[in-house]
Amino acid sequence: MKLNEKHIEDLMLFTKRHYVPYYDLQIELVDHLANDIEELINANPRLSYEEAKQIAFKKFGVFGFQETIEAKRKALNKRYFKLFFSTFLNYFTIPKIIVSVSFFVLFYFTLHTFSTYLKAIFYLVNAVIICYGLYHSTAYHYKLKRKNKETGKKWLFESMSNSLFTIIMSCNLIIQFTQLFFIKQLNTSFHSSKSLFIFSLFTTTLFLAIHIVSVILPKKISLIMQKEYPNYRAV
Prior knowledge:
This protein has 235 residues and is mainly α. The chain is built from nine helices and no strands.
């Protein structure tokens, strides 16, 4: 037996009813269920479609599709982090490395020139970087939400676009509070060349990471999704 379009539509609704909100995961599960159902009916023609469907679903275990969702989420998380690091490493190749180093040098000498206002610059620069990331990340989030509402489709890979951004922002806040604590407790000064170098390097790296996560990666994910799913609509 070969399943028809009505069967496929029923399986799509079936996965959605069983708490699989992501369209890309629904497609994979439907393909898996359809193959199992066809094999079961071919092996035992007395089985009805509904009976075969329930047997195929029971193979997923007590928790249904939840274990499959979690496994897929972990696999896509690894893929997302690999995509981030490969994109980040591209900034250490010519000509992007020239832009990155130029930004670092400019920032370093700016700190030297305005050394009297280092703490104020520390707060200002980090606030600008955070606002930059939040602006682009929030804008993308609302565009994604609007597109999902219009198309009626949510994509798991897209939903991960803010995960790494959240991690980077959390690390940034931890580092800032740690630095401020030690500055207060040990009366550490920002005025040494070594401190300025570390601060400039940290700031440049943080800006690149947030720029990649909030601006570049969403575009790369859209290109990947367009290649893998013909009916995918970019944000």
